[in-house]
Amino acid sequence: MDVTVRPATESDVPALVALHAPLNDFDGTWFTNPFAGGKQAKYEDLSPAQRWLHGGPWMDPQLLALHLDRVYSVQGVVLAAERDGAIVGSAELWPAEEPLPIGSYLDVERLTSAPAASSEIERALLAGAIRESRGRDLRAVDIAPLHAGGDLARLQADGFAVLIEHRTVHLEAGRHPKPPEYSMQSTAPTSTDLKGFVAMNHSEAPSFRMGDLGNEWSAGLLADVSRPFGALLHVDFATLGVTGRACPWLPEPEAEVDLWVPVPALGNLHWFRAAVAAAIDHIARQHRVARYRTTVPTHLAAALQDLGFKDGAEPDPWLRKHLSQRNL
Fold this sequence. Notes:
It contains nine helices and 14 strands. By secondary structure, the protein is α+β, with helices and mostly antiparallel strands. The protein starts with a strand and ends in a 6-residue tail after the last strand.
């Protein structure tokens, strides 16, 4: 039977959790803490936060209901794929607008199907995303397959091309670079404050990541497992945006850091290195962590290696499908 795609509603939450939970990040097995040697447990015995550790809000009905509210409150939409009356796939779509040359686009997150990686279901959901873009007069659909799902080769065969390639790098806490002089302008930057900034991390749409890292959508259910921070730091001639969270659920707690650079500072590697050193110093004053983790475009990974960051071996592409007037 053909796959049909429609917007999901709150009444779909139980079916969506039933779709996602068996596909959790730990082969469908549940633990009290899967990252730190936690004991195997029954799903029913875990808190929403413990379930979230296995794959985000889609693992728990209470969190997913809050998450759906969050998606729709920013004019996003969750698509549900149905076959014979049963939900067999889903994707969430986030409208986003960033400084040029990135511009406006619709971002695809959490592309999921049962059976997993079904080309038929994923193509139906991506076709739904394209229809949604047409209805919004957008000219691009974006996806980061390493995080959102979807097969890279299949996406490229269907017209998606690499727009930005990223690398994730780590800095051990004992190797703090010497910070420059800097001043703090804010400890709670908003999307409005960062409107003229370019997000270095496009593993997900920046507005999506800000909400995820901040946890404000979760009604306090994630307060014990994800501790947000943020800042606007003035370094030399420009201001750096910093958002992120401390991750105490890991055996060696990490700080997950997103960096936001104003357009006039793009390409100034000397300033970028100094600004990142200031960001690490600022975070270290507030959170005791074993390491810092950040994702940046590939060409900036070498600049961070000069500060002591390591890794960055795995390519992490952000793909875009351009929708011309002819396509529309």
